[in-house]
Amino acid sequence: MATLTPQRPPGTAPAPGRGPGTPLRSVLAPLGLVMAAAAGGVALAPGYAAPAPVYAVLPLCALLSVAVTLAARARLSPLAGVLVGLPLPLAGVVVCAARLPGQGTGVLGGTVEALLHSGARILTSAAPTPLNADTLTLPLLATWITGVASVLLWQGSRPALAVLPGLLALVGAVVLNGPVAPPGFPSVGLVAVAAVLLMAASSDDRTAARARAGSGDLRIEVDEAEAQTLGRLGRTLVTAVTAALAAAATVFGGPVLLAPWEADPGDPRETVRPPLAPEAALNPLGYLAAWAAEPDDPLLTVRSEEPVDLRWVALAEFTGTTWLPEGGYRAAGEVLPDPVPPPPHATGVSAEISVGDDLPGGWAPVVGVPRRVGLQPLGYDAVSGTVVSADGGIAGARYEVTGDVADWRAAELADASVPADAVFDRYRELPPGAPPVLNDVAAAVAGQGSPYERAVHLSEYLRESHYFSARTPGGHGYANVADMLAPPGQQGGGGTSEQFASAFAMLARAAGLPSRVVVGFGSGSDEGDGVRTVLTGDALAWGEVYFDGVGWVPFAVTPGEEGGDDAEGASSGAAEGGSPEEPDDADGADDGADPGAPPGREAGPAPLWPFLATGGLLLAAAAAVPALRLARSRWRLRPGVPERRVLGAWRELRDHLRQYAGAPPPGHTVGDTVALVRALLPEEGREWARVDLRRLAGAVNRVGFAPGAGVSAAESAHIVDGVRRQSRALRRTLGRGRRLAWWFDPRPLFWRAP
């Protein structure tokens, strides 16, 4: 039923909730604002050691910020609306300080510390970021501010910019994660869906504003519940389908389209110096001579299913008299960063370690490349793989550790090269004062062959031309090594693993190989029930050389002990498992893996299903628009009530006119619109157009202004045929490209019926 509605007097506002755009605006706009504000938090969560709480807290913060700001803005000014909600995120920081304490003391101290230093705590921590009040406060406050800013922009004069704060927060989260977290395609999908929802709500709101503004002419309102309900359901369906397609294209199509792009995101943590000071205890190499002389004192116990060797400290800087530990320690959580590059053919090994009272320093023994360490608080140096207790000494600590133990295979290392990057220069440098014997031995023993072969020759030279001596005094500088080394072919002196590891690293550097010294422990003595006691005599050192794409490779360099077996197995076993010089031929070096493939990637063709899925989604999206438009056109023009069919034909003609030449002015009457269509038609078809359009205009005016006159079924059928004929005539005047794209234009699906 159509009724005549007079012009609203100037200055008269419509009743609340009665505007044409109210339903979509009240539902879609808040939902879009929440999704845009939550996108940054969803992207940031994978960068944390415990992402699940972050996935819950930050989207909840986005929801509360949008809801509170919308409610406050209904009664208050913009500034008051912002200030009234500010206590809520501050209360969230207090809760975090109480439940997830950081470096502050007490709830109040932890809150103040988190507010002042949250950003610095994130940048100076090891990735993945440990979860505590210090690292969660900045994302919490940023999410709240994002939601507030989105609401203010939405309610201001620039609603199209409401998605911008969420987009900026998403960019900040991706930059902050760096190379740690996976690509944020789900978060980009959230922003895309939020943009669709906000555009739909904004379009509906503009239509409502034009309807509330009125015009100088009488207006037709269709007082028909069925038509209103179907119109709203149609717009909701179109919005939902568009949002789903935008999300699917972003989340599933993005990875496929960007797969050939080898992105290497920078890590913002590298620009900030970690606050944890290098370990201040004595050089761990200095303990080996005393421990070798008194080999039966217990240091720690290890419980594990199989015997495990432990890494303790990596030393890279040589002063000429001593080796110093690497000291770039960052605060870390229980989960540690993925190693780069990953150790080849690694096996995950877990152990429970109980440290005795005599183990010096704060370094924590770990298994292989540590992945999870149940010791809090702790510091971690990703370059060396060294873990330290942030509370000071490690003596008396008890913790569980899981690490990746590599399986080094000589066949895969034979052609490996060493890096030429400047960052590795410090691993090739020898300070002034090096004894000539270093260069003589390096030239004679490691002057030819691949880098791996040269390293193997150096380790064999030390093991075969020298002997182990527990009575050797401590010391591993130039003077100590020069006294021990002998020219090739002659018998050299004796020493402990302290001197041999230092000599290997010096010789490797003299031969141009990046090298360092590592101190660790053998598997210890079996006590039964999976418990082993590590004694002072189990401490040892070995040398490591860095190879491109492989990482640090250990080399057994200590000869057999006096009166005992060869110490090679213990030395290499402590160095992340297995001797690289004696690979397990039973397993076979050629196990189907491509030695030329980058570490951590399986060789072979890329899977086909992502391309097929993306293609299917794109085809579905392309077919959905014309299908929905044709379905709506048939619904409008379907046989039935003549008055409803006439109004459906009128809406169809107005949509085609708007798509062809733009929307007619709001003040246009039915006659003005019909005249505009007739003027756009070609000359030869205007006589037919005059008949069809005159019949349509008369019927629309009778429906709107003379309800009693009615429209017959035959007349409505003639009107429908005429509208179809004139719509085809309009399309024929277009170029071939616009004619082909006519039904693929999605805009008419969002236009509200006049």
Main structural class: alpha+beta
Radius of gyration: 38 Å
Helix count, DSSP H or I runs of 4 or more residues: 22
| Average pLDDT for all residues | 78
Helix fraction by DSSP (H/I, runs of at least 4): 40-55%
Number of strand elements:
20
Strand residue content? 5-15%
Instruction: Going across the biggest sheet, name each strand in turn.
Output: 10-13-7-3-18-17
Main β sheet profile: 6 strands, antiparallel
Distance between the termini: 15 Å
Outline the low-pLDDT stretches: 1-22, 210-230, 561-606
Shape: elongated
Describe the structure.
The chain is α+β, with helices and mostly antiparallel strands and 754 residues long. It is built from 22 helices and 20 strands. It has a six-stranded antiparallel beta sheet, with no helix packed on it. Strands 4, 5, 9, 16, 19 and 20 form a six-stranded antiparallel beta sheet that branches. A four-stranded antiparallel beta sheet has the order 6-11-12-8, with no helix packed on it. A hairpin with a 4-residue loop joins strand 11 (378-381) and strand 12. The longest helix is centred in the first third of the chain and has 33 residues, at 225-257. The protein is elongated. The model is unreliable at 1-22, 210-230 and 561-606 (pLDDT under 50).
